Amino acid sequence: xxxxxxxxxxxxxxxxxxxxxxxxxxxxxxxxxxxxxxxxxxxxxxxxxxxxxxxxxxxxxxxxxxxxxxxxxxxxxxxxxxxxxxxxxxxxxxxxxxxxxxxxxxxxxxxxxxxxxxxxxxxxxxxxxxxxxxxxxxxxxxxxxxxxxxxxxxxxxxxxxxxxxxxxxxxxxxxxxxxxxxxxxxxxxxxxxxxxxxxxxxxxxxxxxxxxxxxxxxxxxxxxxxxxxxxxxxxxxxxxxxxxxxxxxxxxxxxxxxxxxxxxxxxxxxxxxxxxxxxxxxxxxxxxxxxxx
Amino acid sequence: xxxxxxxxxxxxxxxxxxxxxxxxxxxxxxxxxxxxxxxxxxxxxxxxxxxxxxxxxxxxxxxxxxxxxxxxxxxxxxxxxxxxxxxxxxxxxxxxxxxxxxxxxxxxxxxxxxxxxxxxxxxxxxxxxxxxxxxxxxxxxxxxxxxxxxxxxxxxxxxxxxxxxxxxxxxxxxxxxxxxxxxxxxxxxxxxxxxxxxxxxxxxxxxxxxxxxxxxxxxxxxxxxxxxxxxxxxxxxxxxxxxxxxxxxxxxxxxxxxxxxxxxxxxxxxxxxxxxxxxxxxxxxxxxxxxxxxxxxxxx
Lengths: 293, 300
Description:
Helix content of chain B: 25-40%
Oligomer: heterodimer
Largest sheet of chain B: 6 strands, mixed
Order of helices and strands of chain A: HHHEEHHHHHHHHH
Shape of chain B: globular
Strand order of the largest sheet of chain B: 6-7-8-3-9-10
Order of helices and strands of chain B: EEEHEEEHHHEHEHEEHHH
Radius of gyration of chain B: 21 Å
Structural class of chain B: alpha/beta
Number of domains of chain B: 1
Number of strands of chain A: 2
CATH topology of the largest domain in chain A: MetI-like fold
CATH architecture of the largest domain in chain A: Orthogonal Bundle
Mean pLDDT of chain B: 86
Number of domains of chain A: 2
Low-confidence stretches of chain B: 1-17
Largest interface: A-B, 23 and 28 residues
CATH class of chain B: Alpha Beta
Low-confidence stretches of chain A: 1-37
Strand content of chain B: 15-25%
CATH superfamily of the largest domain in chain A: MetI-like
Helix content of chain A: over 70%
Strand content of chain A: under 5%
Strand order of the largest sheet of chain A: 1-2
Radius of gyration of chain A: 25 Å
Number of strands of chain B: 10
């Protein structure tokens, strides 16, 4: 591991000479670095790239030399193996069917969860009776992991497809609900008063103050909910699916196609990253005022 | 920031009915229950504000100044007495009484112009009409160049200016201000006071202004009510016969200083009461002995 890190660290080094070789104060050195990149996030991007490269390099070395120190890398596919299997998978087309299937399930499960949990959370935040009625039920159901729902879901829903979407729904439902509810409780009362004294009705206050004031928390809930949705989906697909990227990954193990396992995992990672990025993007579009902060 | 005065009288202005805007508070009392029994926050306060008059309430913290303002705004009901606006009891919040809070209360998700439009939107005005009116008002307040900014990017003084413009946009009969400049630095405060007095000079709407700053109260007001420490009651009513329009040089005049001195002594008594009485110098002498070389009693 240590020998792996040393050569790979070399590309990072050209960054260092940018510090002035003459004895400058810490201040001028910092200005020098800043000035060179003029505020662009070049450095974090560079560091991120280097760290990813290091990871792949370590992976490569561990698998090529079949390192066996209690943890066994003998059967782990190398980056090159995964690249090769990705090529075949991309050409055959079934891989994308799996990906498409998973995305569809996420979309349905997540959107239904958002469509139910956000309004419910807003109303629970506004009406105490509703909160008192719903909160205990949600607190009892919340700790049950979505995976534990799999057998029940299969019994509940007529098709496998519906039960998987249901599991995905459940996974994202509670984070969205709780964050929305929490957002409602942190709405600044002075803003509500300001709206009321400007002539806003109860309904207008809800629409014009409570909703936008809660949006940041709603989006936090959506981001967390999306993450849990993927966790739940993959688990459900591994257990009861016939398609989907989770099924693909599990099946690869059963068929002893080890490089496909890594391919599936990477695909899941990329999809998860892409979906949380999409939510953040939508959040930024929905809340242009928070960009100013 | 520069001082902006609202100078042009021929510009369109919010509808203001000069005959309206009378505030009457009669025998106002507010009592609430605590673990140690009922507590009177305010008791037996009566005061009036004539249409177009600028009246301040000063008093120590916790004397219930803000409570009365909140009752006038319609956010709470007194436990005894009556709160009347133009002879009718206040039933709830409404745009006929504009309210300015100490905390900045601009909606962070709306731009400056959208904030100013809000009350007009609630009135049901068409989008283009309310935008036009809001722009006019912002122009008068010298805030045109910030109309598309979000509040987060503005200074504290700027936020309160926008807040005042927003409250005035619906053409209220009454403006209620609850220590509106309390969070601002001293310089900005002076500028805001000048802006407010200029605005009021033009609009002639009734203002009830709560503050604990004596200079501010004297500079702005026609009359000042001094309240006692809890339970809040009216201790004195002081007329401020200083000429208008007022500029800040006024605070150096002997008339101003005389008024200030009078109010200062009234307030001091109450503030001391609120703190639990005069500090006993003898007791401190004993205490000072424990602090080698530090004569606290003398310092106080």
